[in-house]
Write a structure and sequence with these properties.
The chain is α/β, with parallel strands linked by helices. It has helices at 13-17, 37-52, 65-74, 79-84, 101-108, 118-132, 142-145, 152-169, 190-194, and strands at residues 5-6, 21-22, 26-31, 56-60, 88-92, 136-140, 172-178, 197-206, 209-219, 229-234, 237-240. It is built from nine helices and eleven strands. It binds adenosine-5'-triphosphate and magnesium ion.
C-alpha cells in the first residue's frame, strides 16, 4: 500500500492524507493568500528528493526562483543544494504574473525575454520532466499560468491540457490554485472537479484568533481524514496537528473569514 502513495514528508500531513498522495495522480492545493501553498509544494519536492530519492520539478509562476529559494532557505530548505546535485529543477516563468497580456507582449519587444505561451510551457514541462527523470511536479500556480487566457472556454481547455500533460507524465503532481475567498462556504473552482484530490488551506477566525487549518476535500481512491486540522508554519516548514480539532463539531458553513 505504502509504495502506492507518495509521502509528502510534511509532519502530520501524510497522516491526514491517509499515508500520502496516490502515485501518478494530480492533486490541487487551493488556499487564500499566505496560507502556505508555495511552502507545501516546495516541501513536497524537497522531501521527495532528500528523503525518498525522487526527483522533482517546480514550475514557479508566482515568485521568481531567487525569492522562492531565499524564502525556503529561511525555513531550513536549501533548494540550491538539491538543484546543484541534479535532484530537483526549478523552472522560472514568474515574470508573466506581473503584467496583463497585451502590455506584457508590448514590453517584451523591448526586453530580451520569450513571450509566455501556455502551450510552450506545456512543451517545457514535458521535456524537463523527461530530461530530469522527475517523479514529482509542482505547478505554482495554475491561476498565474492561465491568467493570460482571457476566454473562459479557452482557459478551461488550457487547464485540462495541463492536467492531461501531468497525468500522462506518470508523475505525482501538485497543482497550486488561489482560492477566490477565504470563506469556508465558497464557490468551487473548475480545477477542483478535474483534480484527483483537493487539499484546502485556510485562515479562519476562532475565538478572536487566526487559525490556519487544512482539510482534504477529496482524494480519489484513498481513505483520508475528513476533519479540518490546524497547522503552523515555522522553521522546518509546515507542521500539521492531525489529532487536534479546529471545531468542536465541524460546521463547514460557519467561522470563515
Ligand atoms: N520564516 C518564516 N517563519 C514563519 N512563518 C513563515 C516564514 N516564512 C513564511 N511564513 C508563513 O508562510 C506564509 C507564506 O507562505 P507561502 O508563500 O507558501 O503562502 P502562499 O499560500 O503561497 O501565498 P500566496 O498566495 O501569496 O502565493 C506567510 O504568510 C507566513 O505566515
Ligand atoms: Mg505562493
Amino acid at each position: 500500500m505504502t509504495e502506492e502513495l507518495a509521502k509528502t514528508g510534511i509532519e502530520g500531513l501524510d497522516e491526514v492524507l491517509g499515508g500520502g498522495i496516490p502515485r501518478g495522480r494530480c492533486i490541487l492545493v487551493v488556499g487564500g493568500p499566505g496560507t502556505g501553498k508555495t511552502i507545501l509544494g516546495a516541501q513536497f519536492i524537497y522531501n521527495g528528493a532528500k528523503k525518498y530519492g525522487e526527483k522533482g520539478l517546480i514550475v514557479t509562476l508566482e515568485e521568481g526562483a531567487p525569492i522562492l529559494k531565499a524564502d525556503l532557505r529561511k525555513l531550513g530548505f536549501d533548494l540550491d543544494e538539491l538543484e546543484n546535485e541534479g535532484l530537483i529543477k526549478i523552472v522560472d516563468h514568474s515574470v508573466v504574473n506581473y503584467l496583463p497580456s497585451e502590455k506584457f507582449r508590448e514590453l517584451v519587444k523591448f526586453m530580451d525575454m520569450p513571450v509566455f505561451k501556455a502551450a510552450s510551457l506545456l512543451e517545457t514541462l514535458k521535456n524537463t520532466i523527461k530530461s530530469l527523470g522527475a517523479s514529482r511536479v509542482v505547478i505554482d500556480s495554475i491561476s498565474a499560468l492561465t491568467f493570460q487566457v482571457a476566454d473562459p472556454v479557452e482557459r478551461r481547455l488550457h487547464t485540462m491540457l495541463i492536467f492531461k500533460t501531468l497525468l500522462d507524465s506518470g508523475c505525482t503532481s501538485i497543482v497550486i490554485s488561489e482560492a477566490k475567498t477565504s470563506q469556508l462556504e465558497r464557490e468551487f473552482i473548475f480545477e477542483e472537479y478535474l483534480a484527483d484530490g483537493v487539499i484546502v488551506l485556510q485562515n479562519i477566525y476562532q475565538e478572536g484568533n487566526l487559525v490556519k487549518c487544512v482539510y482534504v476535500e477529496k482524494m480519489r481512491g484513498a481513505s483520508h481524514d475528513t476533519q479540518p486540522r490546524p497547522y503552523r508554519i515555522d522553521y522546518g516548514g509546515i507542521m500539521v496537528f492531525p489529532k487536534e480539532r479546529v471545531f468542536a463539531s465541524f460546521n463547514p458553513f460557519s467561522g470563515g473569514v
